[in-house]
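Deliverable D5.2: sample structural annotation.
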Amino acid sequence: MEQLDLVRLAATLPAHGLGFPRVYAPAIPSTNTRALELVAQGATPGTIVLTDAQPAGRGRQGRAWVTLPGQQILLSVITYPTCAPHWLVLAAACAATDALVASGVPAPRTGIKWPNDILVDGRKVAGILIETTTAAPGRLAAVIGLGMNVNGSLTPWPAIAARATTLADALGREFSREALILAYLAALGATLADLATDASAQPALFARWRARLTTLGRPTTVHQGDQLVAGIAEDVAADGALILRRPDGTRTTITWGDVQSD
């Protein structure tokens, strides 16, 4: 298993306050779980948890994340936000697409499936899971987890490969995980710093995120547990919720669920 170049990361990080201290192990069951444990122990903001294999990783709604040891980015960042948590969803999604473009992926080939699945050529290459806790004394902590399929291939899992891919498969070349991590943390850190200090940062971030959504304007089905909600993805609300126009003309606000667009 190829391991991350921790020396290269240490030479550049932290970026805008993110990426130090660093907690690394070749395999960690879940970087988010480890980060939440560190929060309970009083971890400083900007702490990052990294691994090369995550056998117990999870996505939204408890889904498992397919692990490709040594081929993915698997990290979690500890933050103590002063803004509402939904802004972290937008910030992390935009930072991930920014990192792809900075690493040579053409911007028109990237996109965001509501709310924060990262796509290349319409297939998922990265997922973001944000978990909050009040375990930190007197303040809200948020762990921002990123799982990105960088190298290797998902072709051994045809059902998954139909809707997801790796950067290597999509672009026909291998990518530097370290360069992507550095670009992601730089973009995320800059946006979080702006959110903390600049009143205009929120509408600017919302506009960036909305412009990258591939879901809008398309027939969409939202899976919420055993329930299905279908309609046209008409717009997003100020808090990031998805607005569906139902077949009867009514509008429904969606705040969670797994989205599939035609």
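Annotation notes: The CA atoms of residues 52 and 70 lie 5 Å apart. Residues 177-197 form the longest helix (21 residues).
The annotation will be released with the project's public dataset once the embargo ends.
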